[in-house]
Design goal:
Layout (H helix, E strand, L loop, with lengths): L1 E2 L3 E9 L7 E9 L13 H5 L14 E8 L5 E12 L2 H13 L4 E2 L3 E2 L13 E10 L4 H17 L5 H10 L1 E2 L10 H4 E4 L7 E4 L12 H9 L1 H12 L3 E6 L2 H14 L8 E3 L16 E6 L12 E5 L4 E3 L13 H13 L20 H19 L7 E5 L5 E4 L1 H8 L5 H8 L1 H10 L3 E2 L3 H8 L1 H7 L3 H19 L31 H17 L10 E2 L21 H16 L2 H14 L3 H16 L4 E2 L1 H16 L9 H9 L3 E5 L2 E4 L13 H20 L16 H4 L4 H11 L5 H30 L8 H5 L32 H27 L4 H31 L20 E10 L20 E8 L2 E8 L9 E6 L3 E8 L10 E7 L3 E7 L4 H16 L8 H7 L5 H4 L5 H21 L2 H5 L16 H11 L15 H11 L2 H8 L5 H4 L8 E4 L15 E4 L4 H8 L9 E5 L6 E5 L6 H7 L10 H18 L23 E4 L18 H6 L15 H5 L6 E6 L14 E6 ...
Parallel strand pairs: 12-14, 12-15, 13-14, 21-22, 34-38, 36-37, 36-38
Antiparallel strand pairs: 1-9, 2-3, 2-8, 4-5, 5-8, 6-7, 10-11, 15-16, 17-18, 19-20, 22-23, 24-25, 24-30, 25-26, 26-27, 28-29, 29-30, 31-32, 33-34, 39-40, 39-45, 40-41, 41-42, 43-44, 44-45
Helix pairs in contact: 3-4, 4-17, 6-8, 6-10, 9-10, 10-16, 18-19, 18-20, 19-21, 20-22, 23-25, 23-26, 26-28, 26-29, 28-29, 33-36, 37-48, 39-41, 40-41, 44-45, 46-47, 46-50, 47-48, 47-50, 50-51
C-alpha cells in the first residue's frame, strides 16, 4: 500500500523581502510538520504554486486548479496539486502591493486577469490576495487531488459542519493499493473507495501494470491542439534529444501536453529535464545545454524568442516552430507514412467514408478517453515495429550479482536494413534507449503489453500492413487493453464529492481560511501510523517470468541486394574455389578467383566464405603453403573492403577468429598469420567493433558456465545468428533461469558464481588485448603509418579498399637504418599508440562488466608486455617475409599498339597505376567501376609513355586500361613512395605529369627494382630533353624510313628530292652573308640563335663567324634585279601562308609590288627575305608604300627583338588595318613623348631612329584612305586632358568584362569605337562618351603595356593614340597553367571531395581570368577595327600575347579564318611565320629544360574554344579539331610546331620539303597534311552546324561567368588512351564485330558507357555521323565503292537548299540557318541548349541569311518555337484552328488567286493549299514574322464583285501579303483570328 498524499501545505501571499514590488509565497502551515523518512519535503513549492509570480488582484477570481511536477535529486517525481483562491488582502499585504502599483505593468495572468495598473489605483478595500492549498504526492491521481482539495475549500467556503483538521488528517492517512490491481484479491482492494469524513466518497482505480503510463485524455488533447504532423515532429524531437518548449495560457493544458508527449514515448522513458509548469523566476533554465520538455505560460512568450535551438509548440495557436539550425530526422519510411495514415483514420473515422456514394449512418465517434488510448496504441505498434527483434542483439555480460546487459547497435541496424537511417541511429545512441536496455533487457522480470506485442504480434502487423481495416481493428484491441489498464473496474467508478455553490467565490467569505490546529492533525496521522505498524506489511507479489524474445529480426523494408542478388550458383562458386585452394588445385582456383571476388560484393557470399573457412579451421587445415595463403588473404581482404567501421553485417566479426588461425611457415620457428595481411581496414581501429565482439564472446563463455554438460562446440561469433534455434537454451534463457534461482542459493554458492563470472570476463580481456595487438601493430613496425592514419581511430577515410594502397602522405620514406635510433623511436611510437588504444578499451569494458580494480590494474601492467612481445615476433616475420620470392605474376603483359616509326625504348616494366585525384576513374561519386588502381606495365617508346594493364578491382577485371601521353608533354616527374598490397611492398613510385592533362602515378613492382626504376627515369629524361631538334620523334621517326626511300622513289623524282636541300643551303649562305656586324652586336634582342643550342657541328659555327665579317649593306636596299638565288628564295617565300593571305586580303603580291603604282597604300617588302632585319619575322612583310626598305632597319631598332610594326590583316569593310610588333625599347615614340620639351644638342643615333619610327607610324596613318588628309584634331588625345584621368580615357581594361565591371562604367570596346553608347554626361563634366568619341577617333590606336607607357602624355598633334593596358606575362601564364594542371588532374584525392574544392583550385589558377582578359582586349580591338580605326598591337616581345590577340582579332573579324583552310592559314601566318617560339615555350630541348612549359598556344586555342561554344554555327571545324591541335602542338609528333621561327626551319631545310617531295604511306610530318588525310576518311574535324552569316563579326561574352572549363582538360578515355592519335584510337570496333556474325540482333547494340573509360562520341555518335556511316556500310554491302563523306554531305546540302521554295524562301524544315534569330548569333548566346542543338531536322543551307533582318527577341523566340514544331509533320487536319477561302495577290506582276487558307494556332502558321481537299501545302506564312495586320485597298486585278472592306494586308518582316475575303464580315473575322493568334503567342 502507498500513501495517497505525503504533505498538505497552505501557502499565502507575503511581501518580497527586498521590497521589489512583487510579492512572494509564504508557507503558512504544512502537515505533517516532520519529514517522512522515505520522502523528504520538496523545496521551492511556493514558486510552483503561482508560476507567474505572487500578485494582488483588484477583484475576486474563481478558484483555479493545476498539478505541477517537481523532480527531486533522485529523479523521483512529486506531483503538487495546487488549488488557489482569493481572499481580501490584509493591510500589510496592501502596503506591499502599493509598490507593485508603482511598477505599473499590465500583464495577463492565470486565465486573463489584469494586474494592477498605476493609472487606476484601486481602493484598499478591493484588493485580494491569493492563497493556495497544496497537496504533495508521489502518485499521479489528478482527479482525486482535484476532488480532495475542492472538498477542503467547500468545507471552508460553505461553512460545513465538519472539522477541517479531520478532513486533512484523513487525507494524509489515506492509503491506496500499489499498481497491479489484477493481482489483488478483490475488487475492493483493486479499486479502493476512500472518504475524507465530509459525507464524500471517491473510488481510486489503480492501474493494472505500473510500467504503462496513465494518460487520461492528454494524448487526445495534444493531437486536437497541434495536429498529426506537429505531434509526430515533437515525438521525433523528443526521441532524438532536442529541446521542446510548450506555451499555453492554461497551466493544466501545459501539464496535460507534457504528460501526453511522455505517454507517447512508452516503452522509452524520458530521462532529461521535465518541468510541465516552469515558474517565471526560473526562466533562465531554458538556456540549459541539455535537452528538456518544459511548459511555460504564454505570457512569457517574448522571453522565449531568442532561444535559437528550442522547438516551440504553441498549444493555443496549434503551431510548432522548429528553428533553422535544428534538424529533426523523420521516422524511417514506410513507418512514417503508415503511422500518419493510421493516425488520421483514428482521429477522423469518417475520412474513409467521405467519398462513398451511399455513406452508412454516422459512425459513433469514440469517447475522448478511448480515442486517447487508440492514439497511444498506434505509437505502441510503431515502437514494436521499430524495435522488433531487439532481444536478439542483447549481450548478457554478467548474470550475478546483477545482470549487466549491452546492446549491439551495429548488428541491429545491419539486420534491420537501416544502416543509413538517421532517426534510428540517434534513438539507439540516446539516453532513453540506454535506459530501455538496462530496464527491459533484464531476462527475468514482470512483463507488460509491450513485451507481448514485440514478441508475438510482429508477424501479424507485417501481414496487416496493406489492410487498413485490419490495422484499425488491431489498434482498437490494443486501445481496449490500455483503457482496461487505467480503468480496471469501470462499474465502481462513482464519486460523490460536495462542491461549492455557483459563484460562491463572489460572496463575501465568512472569514479567511483559518489557521489549523497542528496537534489534531498530527494525532490523526500518528493513530493511523500505529495501526499500519500493527498490520502485516503489504508485499507486492511481482509476477516475474522469462521475457519472450520473439522471432528473429527482419529488415523493415525488404530491399533486394541490388546488383549482386546472391544466387545459389554464386555461393557454389565461392565454395568450389575454397575447396580448390585447400586441395591444392591452384590453376582451377585461379580461374574461379575473379568470379569469387565479384561474388563477394554480396553479403550472402561473404557469409558463405566465412562459414567455409571456419569449417577448414575446424578440420585443422589452418597451416597453408604460400599460394594458398595468398588466395585466402585476397579473399579475406575482398570481404573486408566493403566493411564499414561498425561492421553492421558481422563479416569482420566472423573473420576475426579466422585471421588468427590461418598461417604459413616462413622458416623454422617463424610463422606468419593472416592477420598481418588484413590490417588495412578501418573496422579494426573502431573501438565500438571491439566492444561488441568482446561482449559477444563474454556472453558465450558465461552461458557455457551454466549449461549442464559443458559443450565443446566453438563459440559462435556471429551476433544475431539464431542461437536459440541451434542450441536449446539461449544466453538470455540461461540468464533468466539463473536469476530465478538466485534467491534460493546459499551465500557461499552466490559468491562462487560471482567470482567465476568475473574471472571469465578478466580472461577474455587478456585474450582481446592480444587480439587487438595482432590487428593494430603493422608487420613492419618501423612504419607508424597505420596508427598515424588511425590517430582518430575510426576515421573512415583512412582505410583504402584497394589492393594497392597509398601511404598517408604518399612519401613516408622507409628507413632500415637500425643503428640511427630512428627505428626505435618510431617503433615505440607505434607501440605507445597501440598500448593507449588497448588500455582505453580495457578500462571501458572491465568497468562496465564489473571487474575488480585489482584485476584491472593487473591488466594495465600486462598490456605493454603483450604489445612488446608481439612486436618482437613481428620483426622476425617481417624479415623473413621480405626474403620470400615474389609470387608468380600473371605472365601476360598487354602490349600497346604503336604508330609507324614509333619504337620501344624500354619494354614493359611491371607497375601499378594508382588512382590520382580524379574520382571518376576510381568509381567516385559518378558511380561506374573502379578502373584504378590497375596492374600492368609501363612502356617507354620514342614518342610516348604508355601504361597498359587491367584494373585490380575484380569487378572490372576484363577491361583494359590504357593511359598514355607524348614524352614531349612531360612537365614534371617526381618520386613518390607507396604502400601497397600486403605481400608486396612496392617502395618505388613515380608520378609523371603531362601538359596534355594526363597523370601517371605508378608504383614499380618488386621485380623491377630500384635500378630498373632509375633506368626508366634516365631514359625518359633523355627522350624528353634531346640535345638538339634532330633527336625529337618528328625527325627520328622519319629517319627510320630513310633506307626504304630510294627504292620507292621513281626516277623522275630524283632531282626534286635534292632540290629543297640545295635551296635551303643557298638560302642559308645568303642569309649568313647578309647578317652584318651590327646584327651580331645586337644579338641580345634576338631569340637565342640556333647555333647556341648545340645542334650544328663546330665548323658550321666557325663558318658563320667568318662570313659575318663581310658586311653587305647593299642587300638592305630594294633592287629591281635580284640575284637568281634570291629569286628562287622569293618564289619559295611567295608560296608561304603569309603571301597567300596577303593576296586574299588585297594587300598585294610580290611580283607586282616591286613595280606597282604608288596609289596602293601598302606593299609587300622583301627586305627580310634573308632574315637579316628580324630573324623571328617571315621573309616577306607588308609595310606602307611610302616607306623605303632601308629605313626599315632603323625603325626596327626601336622595338624589342627588332619586331617593328607590320600589317597582318585588313578589314574588307572599313579598310582599317591590324598591325603587330614587339614592345618598344625605352626609346622610340615613348621616349619621344617623354623628352618632348628638352631636345638634346646634336641628335644621337637613337633620336634619329626614333624620328624614323615616328615617320613610319605617320606613314601607316597616311596609308589608310580615310585618314590620309584628316586633320590632327581627329584624335582622342585632342580632347582636354582633364577628361582623360590618369591613364587617359581608357581606364584599366583589367577591371571588367564586356558587361562592364565596378571600375569601368561603360564597355571599353563600345566606348572606343563610339558605338551603342549614348550615355548621360559624365560626372566629371565631360560630354556623353559616344558623343565626343564619334567625330574624334584616332586613326591609329597603339595597344601597349601599361608599365611600358607609364607617365606618357599623348601629343595632340599626333594622329595615333596610346592605349595602355595591363597584361599578364609569360611567367604568369606558366604559373597559372601549373595550377590549372593540378586543379584538373590532382595528384592525390582532395581533402574535401566534391565540386567545391575543384572549383576553388580552378579559381586560384586564374586561368579563366587570363582567358577573360585576352577575349576582352580582342573584342576591344575588333570594335576599333570595325569602326574604321587601325590598331597596332605592341605587347611584350611581340611573339606571345601579341600573337594571341592578333590571331583572335582576325578570327573574330574575318569569317574566312573560321573555316578549316582559313584557320590553318591563320596559325601558319601568325604563329609559325611570325615566330612564336614553340620550342622555347614547350621546353623541347635540353637547353630549354630550366624554362619550363608555357602554353601560350594552348591558351589561344582555349579562347577559340570559348568563342566556338558561344557561336557554334560560325565555325567550319569542330571542337575536336581544337583539341587535336592542343594535343599535338605539344606532342612533337609533327614537325609543324617545332622550332622558334621560319629562319630556324629554313636552316634545317624543313620549310619547303613538303612541296619538294611526295612520300608514300609514310608518317606525315606536317600536322596539316595529317588533318587533310583524316578529313577525307572521316568527318571528325567537321562541324555539321556550320551555317555562317556573311561578313559576321563575332563579339563573344568574355566575363568569367560566361566561360566554360574546356573538357580537353578534364575528360579521359582509359579504354584506348588519348583519342588524338587517330590511327591508334580508331581500332576496329571489336565488341560489335564479335556479335554481328551470328545475327545483328538488336540486343547486341546495347552497350554500357563508363565515365572516364569509354569515349562517349564513339559509343554514341551524333545522328549525322551515324547516317553517313550507315550509308557507307550499305554502299559497301551493295558492292559499290563508298562515296566520300564530304561529297555526300555537300550533295544533301544542295538538295536541301533547292527543296520547294514557292515564294523564294526556305521550307519550314530549314531550321538552322534561317530560324535561329540573328541577335542570338551575333551576341554569342549558347545555342547548344536551344532548339538548334537538340533537333535533327537540320538545315544544311549556309547561304540563306539574305533578307532576314535582325528581329526582336520576342519574334526570335517565336520563330524558334515554330521551327521546333516544324519537325513533326502530322496530318494537317489535326491542327486547323480556322480555315476558309481567301484571294491572295501573287508576287510582283502576278495575278490574284483563290486559295484555301488554314490558320494553325499550334504551329503558329498560316498555310495555304490549292483547294480544300489538297493535302500538299503550297506555302506557309510564319506568324512569328508578322508585324501587323491592317485593312487593305484593292489593287489592279483584284476580284471585282467584292467590297473595299473585304481587303486586308498582312505585313511580315520579309514582305507584305495582300488578301481579299468574300465580304467585309469574313475579312474582319480573319483579321480578328490572326490578331488573336498573335496575342496568344
Amino acid at each position: 500500500m502507498a500513501r495517497l498524499a505525503d504533505y498538505f501545505v497552505l501557502v499565502a501571499f507575503g511581501p518580497h523581502p527586498r521590497g521589489s514590488g512583487e510579492g512572494q509565497g509564504q508557507i503558512l502551515q504544512r502537515f505533517p510538520e516532520k519529514d517522512w523518512e522515505d520522502n523528504p519535503f520538496p523545496q521551492g513549492i511556493e514558486l510552483f504554486c503561482q508560476p507567474s509570480g505572487w500578485q494582488l488582484c483588484p477583484e475576486r477570481s474563481p478558484p483555479t486548479f493545476f498539478v505541477a511536477v517537481l523532480t527531486d535529486i533522485n529523479s523521483e517525481r512529486h506531483y503538487c496539486a495546487c488549488l488557489t483562491f482569493w481572499e481580501p488582502a490584509e493591510p500589510t499585504q496592501e502596503a506591499a502591493s502599493a509598490e507593485d502599483a508603482a511598477d505599473g505593468e499590465e500583464e495577463l495572468e492565470d486565465g486573463g486577469r489584469m494586474r494592477l495598473s498605476p493609472s487606476a489605483p484601486a481602493p484598499a478595500s478591493q484588493l485580494f490576495a491569493p492563497k493556495t492549498l497544496v497537496l504533495v504526492s508521489r502518485l499521479d491521481h489528478t482527479e482525486v487531488f482535484r476532488n480532495s482539495l475542492g472538498l477542503i475549500y467547500t468545507v471552508h467556503v460553505e461553512g460545513l459542519d465538519v472539522s477541517l483538521e479531520s478532513v486533512i488528517g484523513n487525507l494524509l492517512t489515506c492509503t491506496i493499493p500499489l499498481a497491479g490491481g489484477s493481482q489483488l484479491d478483490s475488487v475492493e482492494e483493486g479499486a479502493r473507495t476512500i472518504s475524507l469524513g465530509a459525507g464524500d466518497r471517491q473510488v481510486i482505480q489503480t492501474p493494472l501494470t505500473d510500467s504503462l503510463p496513465v494518460s487520461c485524455c492528454s494524448v487526445a488533447l495534444l493531437f486536437r491542439q497541434l495536429g498529426i504532423t506537429n505531434v509526430l515532429c515533437l515525438f521525433c524531437a523528443a526521441l532524438t534529444e532536442h529541446k521542446i518548449l510548450f506555451l499555453s495560457r492554461s497551466y493544466q493544458r501545459l501539464a496535460d501536453a507534457c504528460r501526453g508527449l511522455l505517454a507517447l514515448l512508452f516503452p522509452l522513458r524520458y530521462s532529461f529535464t521535465y518541468v510541465p509548469i516552469l515558474p517565471a523566476q526560473l526562466l533562465e533554465v531554458l538556456s540549459t545545454p541539455t535537452p528538456f520538455v518544459i511548459g511555460v505560460h504564454a505570457a512569457f512568450q517574448a522571453e522565449t524568442q531568442e532561444l535559437l535551438d528550442v522547438i516551440i509548440a504553441d498549444l493555443d495557436g496549434g503551431t510548432v516552430t522548429v528553428p533553422e539550425c535544428v534538424h529533426i530526422p523523420p521516422l524511417p519510411e514506410p513507418l512514417q507514412s503508415q503511422t500518419h495514415s493510421v493516425l488520421s483514420t483514428v482521429l477522423d473515422p469518417e475520412l474513409e467514408l467521405a467519398d462513398l456514394a451511399f455513406p452508412p449512418p454516422t459512425v459513433p465517434a469514440s469517447s475522448l478517453k478511448m480515442q486517447d488510448k487508440e492514439l497511444r496504441a498506434v505509437f505502441l505498434r510503431l515502437f514494436a515495429q521499430l524495435l522488433q527483434g531487439y532481444r536478439w542483439c542483447l549481450h548478457i555480460v554478467r548474470i550475478h550479482p546483477e545482470p549487466v546487459i549491452r546492446f549491439h547497435k551495429a548488428a541491429f541496424l545491419g539486420q534491420r536494413g537501416l544502416v543509413e537511417d538517421d532517426f534510428l541511429m540517434k534513438v539507439l545512441e540516446g539516453m532513453a534507449f540506454a535506459g530501455f536496455v538496462s530496464e527491459r533487457g533484464v531476462p527475468y522480470r514482470a512483463t507488460d503489453l509491450f513485451d507481448e506485442l514485440v514478441a508475438h504480434e510482429v508477424a501479424r502487423m507485417r501481414a496487416d500492413e496493406s489492410h487498413p481495416q485490419r490495422v484499425l481493428r488491431h489498434v482498437k484491441e490494443l486501445a481496449e487493453q490500455l483503457y482496461k489498464n487505467e480503468n480496471p473496474y469501470p462499474a465502481v467508478a462513482m464519486h460523490k464529492v460536495q462542491r461549492p455553490a455557483e459563484a460562491s467565490h463572489l460572496r463575501r467569505a465568512p472569514r479567511p481560511f483559518p489557521r489549523l490546529d497542528e496537534g489534531t492533525v498530527q494525532w490523526i496521522v500518528d493513530q493511523a501510523m500505529a495501526k499500519m505498524q500493527g498490520a502485516p506489511p503489504a508485499v507486492r507479489a511481482e509476477r516475474r517470468s522469462t521475457v519472450p524474445s520473439g522471432p528473429p529480426m527482419t529488415a523493415i523494408l525488404e530491399r533486394s541486394s541490388g546488383l549482386h542478388a546472391n544466387s545459389a550458383r554464386r555461393l557454389e562458386v565461392v565454395r568450389n574455389c575454397i575447396s580448390y585452394v585447400f586441395e591444392g588445385k591452384m590453376l582451377e582456383a585461379k580461374k574461379l578467383l575473379p568470379a569469387v571476388l565479384r561474388a563477394l560484393k554480396g553479403r550472402a557470399a561473404r557469409r558463405c566464405l566465412t562459414q567455409e573457412l571456419h569449417l577448414h579451421v575446424q578440420q585443422n587445415r589452418a597451416v597453408l603453403d604460400h599460394q594458398q595463403f595468398d588466395f585466402v588473404v585476397r579473399m579475406m581482404n575482398c570481404c573486408l573492403q566493403d566493411c564499414t567501421s561498425a561492421d553492421e553485417h558481422g563479416i569482420a566479426a566472423a573473420l576475426l577468429p579466422l585471421v588468427t588461425a590461418f598461417c604459413r611457415k616462413l622458416s623454422p620457428g617463424v610463422t606468419q598469420f593472416a592477420y598481418s595481411c588484413v590490417q588495412e581496414h578501418v573496422v579494426w581501429s573502431t573501438p565500438q567493433f571491439w566492444e561488441a565482439m568482446f561482449y559477444g564472446d563474454v556472453q558465450t563463455h558465461v552461458r557455457a558456465l551454466y549449461l549442464e554438460p559443458p559443450e565443446d562446440r566453438p563459440p559462435t561469433q556471429q551476433v544475431g545468428e539464431a542461437l536459440a534455434q541451434e542450441e536449446p537454451p539461449s544466453a538470455l534463457d540461461v540468464a533468466s533461469e539463473q536469476r530465478r534461482l538466485w534467491p534460493t542459493l546459499s551465500r557461499a554458492k552466490q559468491q562462487e558464481l560471482v567470482q567465476k563470472e568475473e574471472s571469465t570476463v578478466f580472461s577474455q580481456a587478456i585474450h582481446y588485448a592480444s587480439r587487438m595487438s595482432y590487428l593494430l601493430l603493422p608487420l613492419d613496425a618501423s612504419k607508424s603509418r597505420l596508427l598515424r592514419e588511425r590517430a582518430g581511430l575510426g576515421d573512415p577515410e583512412s582505410a583504402s579498399n584497394s589492393l594497392v594502397t597509398n601511404s598517408m602522405a604518399g612519401s613516408v620514406a622507409e628507413s632500415y637504418d637500425t643503428e640511427s635510433g630512428f627505428e626505435d623511436a618510431e617503433t615505440s611510437d607505434v607501440a605507445g599508440a597501440v598500448v593507449r588504444f588497448i588500455n582505453r578499451f580495457v578500462d571501458k569494458v572491465c568497468t562496465e562488466s564489473g571487474v575488480t580494480s585489482d584485476h584491472l590494474k593487473g591488466l594495465h601492467v600486462m598490456v605493454p608486455d603483450i604489445v612488446q612481445m608481439h612486436i618482437e615476433t613481428l620483426e622476425a616475420v617481417h624479415r623473413e617475409s621480405r626474403r620470400l620470392p615474389p609470387i608468380q605474376k600473371q605472365p601476360k603483359l598487354l602490349r600497346p599498339r604503336l604508330l609507324p616509326g614509333e619504337e620501344c625504348v624500354l619494354d614493359g616494366l611491371r607497375v601499378y597505376l594508382l588512382p590520382d585525384g580524379r574520382e571518376e576513374g576510381a568509381g567516385g561519386s559518378a558511380g561506374g567501376p573502379a578502373l584504378l588502381p590497375a596492374e600492368g606495365a609501363v612502356f617507354l617508346t620514342t614518342y610516348r609513355v604508355i601504361f597498359t594493364g587491367m584494373p585490380t578491382d575484380p569487378l572490372v577485371g576484363e577491361q583494359v586500361v590504357v593511359r598514355a601521353f607524348p614524352v614531349a608533354a612531360l612537365t614534371k616527374e617526381k618520386r613518390i613512395s607507396v604502400q601497397t598490397h600486403v605481400d608486396q611492398f612496392l617502395q618505388d613510385g613515380l608520378q609523371l605529369r603531362a601538359c596534355t592533362f594526363q597523370l601517371l602515378r605508378m608504383a614499380f613492382d618488386e621485380e623491377v627494382g630500384s635500378e630498373g626504376a632509375e633506368l626508366f627515369r634516365k631514359q625518359l629524361h633523355r627522350l624528353r630533353y634531346p640535345p638538339d631538334i634532330k633527336g625529337t620523334f618528328a625527325f627520328a621517326s622519319g629517319a627510320t624510313h630513310t633506307p626504304g626511300r630510294p627504292g620507292r622513289a621513281a626516277k623522275d623524282k630524283g632531282p626534286s628530292l635534292s632540290a629543297p636541300r640545295t635551296l635551303s643551303r643557298n638560302l642559308m649562305k645568303n642569309a649568313k652573308r647578309t647578317i652584318g656586324r651590327q646584327h651580331i652586336t645586337r644579338k641580345k634582342y634576338s631569340p637565342p640563335s640556333w647555333e647556341h643550342r648545340g645542334q650544328p657541328p663546330a665548323e658550321d659555327q666557325e663558318d658563320e663567324i667568318a662570313v659575318s665579317e663581310e658586311a653587305e649593306p647593299s642587300t638592305l636596299t630594294p633592287s629591281a634585279g635580284l640575284k637568281p638565288a634570291d629569286r628562287l628564295t622569293l618564289s619559295s617565300l611567295v608560296e608561304r601562308a603569309c603571301c597567300r593571305d596577303y593576296q586574299r586580303l588585297g594587300l598585294g603580291t610580290l611580283g607586282s609590288s616591286l613595280s606597282r603604282a604608288k596609289s596602293e597604300p601598302f606593299r609587300v617588302s622583301p627586305v627580310n627575305r634573308m632574315y637579316a632585319i628580324c630573324r623571328s619575322y617571315p621573309g616577306l612583310l607588308i609595310v606602307p608604300q611610302s616607306v623605303q626598305d632601308n629605313a626599315l632597319q632603323r625603325v626596327s631598332r626601336c622595338y624589342r627583338q627588332n619586331r617593328f610594326p607590320v600589317v597582318c590583316w585588313r578589314s574588307g569593310r572599313s579598310k582599317a588595318v591590324l598591325l603587330r610588333s614587339g614592345g618598344l625599347h625605352g626609346k622610340g615614340v615613348v621616349g619621344l613623348f617623354k623628352a618632348q620639351n628638352a631636345p638634346s644638342p646634336g641628335q644621337s643615333q637613337a633620336d634619329s631612329s626614333s624620328l624614323e619610327q615616328e615617320k613610319y607610324l605617320q606613314a601607316v596613318v597616311s596609308a589608310m584612305p580615310r585618314y590620309a588628309d584628316a586633320s590632327g584634331r581627329n584624335t582622342l588625345s585632342g580632347f582636354s586632358s582633364a577628361h582623360l584621368g590618369s591613364h587617359g580615357k581608357w581606364g584599366s581594361i583589367r577591371v571588367s568584362g564586356r558587361s562592364g565591371g565596378p571600375g569601368v562604367g561603360v564597355d571599353v570596346g563600345s566606348r572606343l569605337a563610339g558605338r551603342d553608347v549614348l550615355g548621360p554626361p559624365q560626372p566629371n563634366g565631360a560630354p556623353p562618351d559616344s558623343g565626343f568619341l564619334r567625330p574624334q577617333r584616332a586613326a591609329l590606336y597603339i595597344i601597349g603595356d601599361k608599365a611600358q607607357l607609364k607617365g606618357v602624355r599623348p601629343d595632340p598633334l599626333q594622329q595615333w593614340e596610346l592605349v595602355p593596358i595591363e597584361v599578364f606575362e609569360a611567367r604568369q601564364v606558366k604559373a597559372s597553367f601549373k595550377k590549372l594542371l593540378k586543379a584538373c588532374v590532382p595528384g592525390c584525392p582532395a581533402a574535401e571531395p566534391g565540386p567545391a574544392s575543384y572549383l576553388r583550385s580552378l579559381e586560384d589558377s586564374e586561368w579563366l581570368t587570363q582567358i577573360h582578359k585576352l577575349l576582352q582586349v580582342s573584342v576591344l580591338v575588333v570594335e576599333l577595327l570595325d569602326s574604321g580605326s587601325s590598331v597596332l598591337v605592341s605587347l611584350e616581345d611581340g611573339w606571345d600575347i601579341t600573337t594571341q590577340v592578333v590571331s583572335l582579332v582576325q578570327l573574330l573579324s574575318d569569317p574566312f579564318y573560321r573555316t578549316l583552310e582559313g584557320f590553318r592559314l591563320l596559325v601558319e601566318k601568325e604563329w609559325l611565320s611570325f615566330g612564336h617560339r614553340f620550342s622555347h615555350r614547350g621546353a623541347h630541348m635540353l637547353a630549354g629544360q630550366s624554362s619550363g612549359v608555357v602554353p601560350i598556344f594552348l591558351q589561344f586555342l582555349d579562347c577559340v574554344h570559348q568563342v566556338h561554344l558561344q557561336f557554334p554555327m560560325e565555325f567550319e571545324f569542330s571542337q575536336f579539331y581544337l583539341k587535336f591541335l592542343s594535343y599535338h602542338h605539344a606532342s612533337r609528333r609533327f614537325r609543324t610546331f617545332l622550332l622558334d621561327s621560319d629562319y630556324e626551319r629554313i636552316e634545317l631545310g624543313l620549310l619547303y620539303e613538303e612541296k619538294g617531295e611526295r612520300r608514300g604511306q609514310q608518317a606525315c610530318r606536317s600536322v596539316w597534311e595529317h588533318v587533310d588525310r583524316l578529313s577525307k576518311k572521316t568527318p571528325v574535324f567537321y562541324n555539321y552546324m556550320y551555317a555562317p552569316e556573311d561578313a559576321e563579326v563575332l563579339r563573344p561574352y568574355s566575363n568569367v561567368s560566361n566561360l566554360k572549363v574546356w573538357d580537353f582538360y578534364t575528360e579521359e578515355t582509359l579504354a584506348e588512351g588519348p583519342p588524338y592519335d587517330w590511327e591508334l584510337a580508331r581500332g576496329p570496333p571489336e565488341p560489335p564485330e564479335e556479335e554481328r556474325p551470328d545475327s545483328s540482333a538488336p540486343q547486341s547494340r546495347r552497350r554500357v558507357v563508363w565515365p572516364c573509360y569509354d569515349s562517349r562520341p564513339r559509343a554514341q555518335p551524333d545522328a549525322i555521323s551515324r547516317l553517313l556511316e550507315e550509308l557507307q556500310r550499305l554502299e559497301t554491302e551493295l558492292g559499290r565503292p563508298p562515296e566520300r563523306w564530304k561529297d555526300t554531305w555537300d550533295r544533301v546540302k544542295a538538295a536541301q537548299r533547292l527543296e520547294g521554295r514557292p515564294d523564294g524562301r526556305g521550307t519550314p524544315g530549314s531550321l538552322l540557318a534561317s530560324t535561329v534569330p540573328h541577335h542570338r548569333r551575333s551576341l554569342g548566346v549558347y545555342l547548344q541548349e536551344g532548339p538548334a542543338g537538340s533537333t535533327l531536322s537540320l538545315s544544311l543551307d549556309s547561304d540563306q541569311s539574305g533578307g532576314s533582318s535582325a528581329s526582336s527577341s520576342r519574334q526570335a523566340a517565336r520563330r524558334s518555337t515554330s521551327a521546333l514544331y516544324s519537325q513533326f509533320q502530322t496530318a494537317e487536319s489535326e491542327n486547323r484552328s480556322y480555315e476558309g477561302t481567301l484571294y491572295k495577290k501573287g508576287a510582283f506582276m502576278k495575278p490574284w488567286k483563290a486559295r484555301w487558307f488554314v490558320l494553325d494556332k499550334t504551329k503558329h502558321q498560316l498555310r495555304y493549299y490549292d483547294h480544300r481537299v489538297d493535302t500538299e501545302c503550297k506555302g506557309v506564312i510564319d506568324l512569328a514574322e508578322v508585324e501587323a495586320v491592317a485593312p487593305g485597298a484593292p489593287t489592279m486585278g483584284a476580284p471585282k464583285t467584292v467590297g473595299e472592306k473585304a481587303f486586308f494586308d498582312v505585313k511580315t518582316t520579309r514582305r507584305v501579303y495582300n488578301f481579299c475575303a468574300q465580304d467585309a464580315a469574313s475579312a474582319q473575322q480573319w483579321v480578328d483570328r490572326i490578331q488573336g493568334c498573335l496575342s496568344d503567342a
